[in-house]
Design goal:
This protein has 3 helices and 2 strands. With 113 residues, it is mostly helical. The longest helix has 33 residues, at 76-108.
């Protein structure tokens, strides 16, 4: 999901380009004419060059989830819906594990969050 830049867009009359004033993420998007826009840094550029599809689970865990969910499902649509729900559950578990690891790492270095 692309990030959203919360800073208001304003017009800079000096050179006719739009900038995000007070934005810590200013960048020279205008270098190649009108090919890029200020919001592209956290839009399509982020999607294309700063993300990667990765597996959430290993094969054994994935297989177990699929078998569990297909057994409970009565239709293909229900199966897909259950897979989507399980995906969100696993992503939440992954985010929680990463956050816990970050806190533990910070504490091991003597920092407090």
């Amino acid at each position: 999901m692309p990030w959203h830049c919360p800073f208001p867009k304003t017009y800079d009359g000096l050179d006719g380009r739009y900038y995000y004033h007070e934005d810590p993420y200013k960048w020279p998007y205008f270098k190649f004419g009108e090919a890029l826009k200020p919001e592209d840094i956290f839009g399509h550029l982020h999607e294309r060059f700063n993300t990667a599809p990765i597996a959430i689970m290993d094969k054994v865990a994935w297989h177990a989830d699929v078998v569990d969910l297909i057994t409970m499902s009565k239709t293909l649509d229900e199966f897909y819906a259950r897979l989507e729900e399980r995906k969100m559950l696993r992503l939440d578990e992954l985010k929680s594990a990463i956050a816990s690891a970050d806190v533990l790492d910070s504490l091991s270095k003597g920092n407090s969050k």
